[in-house]
Amino acid sequence: MVQTFEELAGSELDALYQGALFLSGGDRRGAERLLVEAVTLAFQEHVPDSDIGDARRWLEARLARAFLRAVREGPKVLPAETVRRIRLDPGTFDLLDSDALFDAAAHLPPGPRAALWLVLLRRWGYSEAAEVLGIDEETMRVFLGYRDVLMREMLGHGHPRTGTQ
Fold first, then answer.
1. Does residue 108 lie in a domain region?
2. Distance between alpha carbon 165 and the CA centroid of its chain, in Å?
3. What residues contact residue 59 under an 8 Å CB cut-off, 6+ apart?
4. Is 59 part of a structural domain of the chain?
5. DSSP 8-state code for residue 122
6. Cα separations (Å) of 39 from 31, 80, 93, 150?
7. Does residue 42 contact residue 3 with C-beta atoms inside 8 Å?
8. Domain that holds residue 10
9. How far apart (Å, rounded) are the C-alpha atoms in residues 80 and 97?
């Protein structure tokens, strides 16, 4: 089935927006700017008779590249703060939501954030994601090591930290 660009973008808009929110660390305005840039650039390159699964990946790649380009061209992003061991309340897992994920993502450097989004959340293969991000597979493995930081940040979301945690 051949899809027009409008049909493709429309069917993927929610997933792309969630990805943009993750990449922008929950900044809704930043996510909207990122999504508009990715979709606008993708419109110019769209091939109407591509497979739907390939087209979805193609749009996700445009979003990841738009994010990394915006980071390079924008203000410097500070490295993730040091994450300390935290004690968890048993009800912590009940409180996790997409905002906790987006807030936690904001603490990651841009490269690892894009890598985690593609591999963990969109289920891309390591080599495919590395190619889109312009890195080698060893760097991709290092970037994916940030998943521990992401989880610690998510689990600490909304809990004040003290020097003992």
1. yes
2. 27
3. 8, 9, 12, 16, 38, 39, 42
4. yes
5. S
6. 12, 28, 34, 27
7. no
8. 5-155
9. 21
In a domain, 163, yes or no: no
Q: What is the pLDDT of residues 58-89, one digit of tens each?
A: 889 989 999 999 999 875 443 444 444 445 45
Whole-model pTM above 0.90?
no
Question: Is residue 132 exposed (0-12), middle (13-18) or buried (19+ Cβ within 10 Å)?
Answer: buried
What residue has token string 């060893």? 138
* Three-class DSSP labels, 72-109: HHCCCCCCCCCCCCCCCCCCHHHHCCHHHHHHHHCCCC
In a domain, 162, yes or no: no
Residue 155: phi, psi to the nearest 5?
-70, -25
Report the helix count and the strand count for the chain, using DSSP H and E.
9, 0
What's 137's domain CATH number? 1.20.140.160
CA-wise closest residue to 93 among 160, 155, 165, 161: 155
Cα(33)–Cα(24) distance, rounded to whole angstroms? 10
User: Could you give the number of structural domains in the chain?
Assistant: 1
